[in-house]
Amino acid sequence: MKRSTMLIIPVLILLSTGLFRAPRNEAWFRRKGEPVKARVIQIRDSAPAASTADPVWRLKATWTDDNSQKTYTFEKIFPERPDYRAGDFIDVLIDPKDPKKYYVD
């Protein structure tokens, strides 16, 4: 059997079982994501103190699933300080099957 044929069979099995999936992107989340309101808990400058590089802002927000009572933390990095403060609510699109996969809008 040719080597290429031996490689095709496992790839077809992975594709048919759904184990081989492309990473979720913004377009996927806009189509299929479930919107939730998450509370901003932190916005901070992520650049090291001695760095001369432009600051990078890291936003953290949390959301608790009413059904499972699990709390999820979402993060997003911004090139400029976002117009949010701790306590504000932001829109997050989650994968309905796995809330650990998300897109901060």
What report would you give on this structure?
There is one protein chain. By secondary structure, the protein is an alpha+beta fold. It has one domain (25-104). The chain has helices spanning 3-17, 26-32, and strands at 34-45, 57-64, 71-78, 89-95, 98-104. The chain has a five-stranded antiparallel β-sheet with strand order 3-2-1-4-5. The model has no long low-confidence stretch (mean pLDDT 84).
**Distance from first to last alpha carbon:** 49 Å
**Low-confidence parts:** none
Question: How many distinct domains?
Answer: 1
**Any idea what the radius of gyration is?**
19 Å
**Largest sheet at a glance?**
5 strands, antiparallel
Order of helices and strands: HHEEEEE
Number of helical regions: 2
Principal-axes shape call: flat
Calculate the mean pLDDT score and round it: 84
Question: What is the compact description of this entry?
Answer:
By secondary structure, this protein is α+β, with helices and mostly antiparallel strands. Helix content is 21%, strand content 40%. The protein is built from two helices and five strands.
